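Budget justification, computational time. The allocation requested in the original proposal was used primarily to generate structure tokens for proteins on the priority list. As evidence of use, we reproduce two of the resulting records. The first is shown immediately below.
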Amino acid sequence: MEIELHAHTHHSRGKKIPVEAFMSPTDLVREAKRLRLDAVAITDHSTSEGWKEALEAGKKHGIIVIPGIEIETEGGHLIGLNLNEFIPDKMSVEETVGRIREQGGLSVAPHPYDLRREGIRDSFTKADAVEVFNSINIDRISNRIAEKRARQEGKPMVVGSDAHSREMLGRSINRVKADSLDSAMREIKSGRVGFTRSYIPMEVMVSWTRDRMLHSYPDILEYISRNYSWPRSSISRYLLKSFVMSDHPGWIRFGNFSLWMARRYGSLISLRI
């Protein structure tokens, strides 16, 4: 089976930028079918709202849908897979893992060492599996640390596209020898998983970020007004307008330069880990 274990629909919402993803649950399943995947997990942030629609679309299109949630624990993000009930945020990592296991589900530590510090970091040892490659972590170093630490601890490893748009889905795929969802979860928990993995291209990242900001424009302006004082507020408004109203090529070049700088910094850090 070929499985996408980390994907979002328009039910995911951000804090600073509310619009996070653009696919409906049906869109997600249709795209998984087009990519010839056998299964796809719906892992929206802090909600199970898209499960019903996704499961119905999965039956229609012959795709196994894995109900999941990317839960915000007290220590960072944790994914619960193969769930049948909603699990709330703001519990400890240990309690959240316990709630997932009570449902017979599988806990995965996504992007544990991402630069935004949204992962659970060394608490990944409490989860059933570790996401050692996240396609959005284009700084590279975050994934290297995750894989090295997972191997040191002997934890089962998975990969995830962290897809927020059609163009992102299927970038990182898990392969298991299984013929059902339950057997696939057992294989993952046992660490018998093969991968194909790749990073999201910069042009896709820039386009996604621009679309998010364009659709969240009033909310971002309100956030700037509430939280930033002059001159930071004026500069932020100017940069926001410049980004959402401009063409992509210049920002793609800027993104590639920033990425090059991040990788240079990451290579120095990697010498110490």
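The second record produced under the same allocation is shown here.
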Amino acid sequence: MNIVIVGFGIAGKYYFNILKKNKDIKKIFIIDEKKILFNERYEQIHFKKIQKKNIKIDNAIISTPSGNHYEAAKFFLKRKANVLIEKPFVLKLKHAKELINLTKKNRIKCWVMFQNRYNLAISKLKKIIKKKK
């Protein structure tokens, strides 16, 4: 299984540290503007190289600034990769509809990560709200 992480900021590094422990992953590709050094199991790559070399990507994680989510997700959904997008999903409703249609057409998955659901402050707030119904 090949995975790509688009954006290597805080969230991208978090996913990378989880994924690099999984022995079922053949290769982790990183797409980021900054130069990053890795060994042979991890490789920094550009969208064009994935397309040109026809590299099979099974799963993509989009952890770029919000305005870039749509284009990156669309790129991988068109190539039949499952996609996980950091919140927000996209910034325009028409883009959301297009990505949803791509998932249906290609029979793949596209998820949105709302990681703050499990944040300690959010959990406590949820309990307070629930108690005061």
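A brief technical remark on that second record: Strands lie at 2-6, 27-31, 42-44, 59-62, 82-86, 110-113.
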